[in-house]
Design goal:
By secondary structure, this protein is α+β, with helices and mostly antiparallel strands. It has two domains: 137 residues, Immunoglobulin-like, CATH 2.60.40.2970; 149 residues, Collagenase (Catalytic Domain). It has nine helices and 15 strands. The strands form four sheets. The chain has a four-stranded antiparallel sheet. A hairpin with a 4-residue loop joins strand 14 and strand 15. Helix 2 packs antiparallel against helix 4 and helix 2 packs across helix 6. The two termini are 30 Å apart. 50% of the residues are buried.
């Protein structure tokens, strides 16, 4: 982690308290994908329940930010994701962060898959979407749970040359960015990095020697192999958080790619190994949280560091918070940033 001209590291997004709800049933939401251009995909999100759903737009398949909305494979090999991973402030959300879908109604969004994945080789690609979307109760901006979804799988026959013209190059400004984590921002992030290392160290011990109940809650497994994977990730997180002037990542305190949208604390571009801390993170979050799933500056770093390919290369699956964690499969949990963040936070809080 480089801390001088560019700080280094990442951010997390633990969560404010979440609650289960019948609306979180996998049948409550369906997602249908279809190709509408060379590399454009239309997603139709249908509320199959009996009541209105107030779904989080920011950082999910419903939003405009280049987050991971679909999974793309070619010849059974998943293509690397080149967009941003957001960290959402769950207790600071406003109306613009949500989209209401009435019972039986459908919302449609269209996005260009080639913007954040390299489709320049052209040919046939398989595209699908799985994950979960946090929701609030009607008339509220407080997240109350998460609803899971799994789309159909579609095949796209892509013109590689056309697709290459759509690609977002999110690291193109890397060499011209000036130092910006200075003064009070430097002090804030430096303290959070130290505490990130402490959280990760405790989580390493919990993953290695801790009770089966905690491993089962977050990773749906208690075997030695799973414990070893989880402990290894936290050990890498700890080392990165301690690498104030080295490490594999760089950290910034200014919005390099205009992704500090409403309710966003931080974001990571894993392909460029850098993280950006937004003003909301620097001015509104506490250094630590004593609640089981509370957000803090320190556990936000844990979340984002796991996104780095050199650490784990985790995904968000469009889901944040404990309800989303508990709606994922075991295979997703082991590769989900918030699962690691909340495991570390709950360990720290003694839950």
């Amino acid at each position: 982690m480089k801390f001088s001209s560019i700080l280094s590291l990442t951010s997390l997004a633990s969560a404010a308290p979440y609650f289960h709800s019948n609306e979180g049933s996998p049948d409550a939401l369906s997602v249908k994908l279809e190709m509408v251009g060379n590399s454009d995909v239309k997603a139709s999100i249908t509320n199959n329940g009996n009541a209105k759903l107030r779904l989080l737009r920011t950082g999910t398949i419903l939003g405009n930010t280049p987050v991971e909305k679909v999974q793309v494979t070619q010849n059974d090999q998943e293509l690397a994701f080149g967009g941003v991973h957001l960290t959402i402030a769950y207790d600071m959300l406003e109306n613009g962060a949500f989209q209401d879908i009435d019972a039986g109604q459908t919302a449609e969004v269209t996005f260009d898959v080639a913007q954040i994945r390299d489709l320049s080789r052209g040919g046939k690609f398989d595209i699908s979407a799985t994950g979960s979307i946090p929701f609030a109760n009607e008339g509220s901006n407080t997240l109350a749970g998460a609803v899971s979804y799994a789309s159909n799988r579609i095949q796209a026959d892509v013109d590689g040359q056309k697709a290459s013209l759509s690609r977002l190059v999110l690291d193109q400004k890397r060499t011209v960015v000036k130092p910006d984590c200075t003064g009070s921002n430097y002090t804030i992030v430096r303290a959070a990095l130290r505490n990130c290392a402490n959280l990760a160290q405790a989580a390493t011990q919990a993953a290695t020697f801790g009770p089966d109940a905690r491993m089962q809650q977050f990773y749906q497994a208690t075997d030695k192999t799973t414990r070893g994977i989880v402990a290894g990730v936290f050990e890498k997180v700890k080392n990165e958080c301690l690498s104030f002037d080295g490490g594999v990542s760089s950290l910034y305190c200014s919005d390099r790619f205009n992704s500090c949208a409403e309710g966003v604390l931080a974001y990571t571009v894993a392909q460029a190994s850098y993280m950006v801390y937004c003003n909301l993170y620097l001015t509104r979050l506490p250094l630590n949280s004593q609640s089981c799933y509370g957000q803090s500056q320190s556990n936000t770093i844990v979340h984002e560091v796991t996104h780095l390919s050199q650490v784990k290369g985790t995904n968000d699956y469009g889901g944040y918070g404990i309800s989303s964690v508990q709606n994922l499969t075991a295979a997703q949990n082991i590769n989900h940033a918030d699962t690691y963040a909340l495991f570390a936070q709950s360990t720290f809080a003694g839950c």
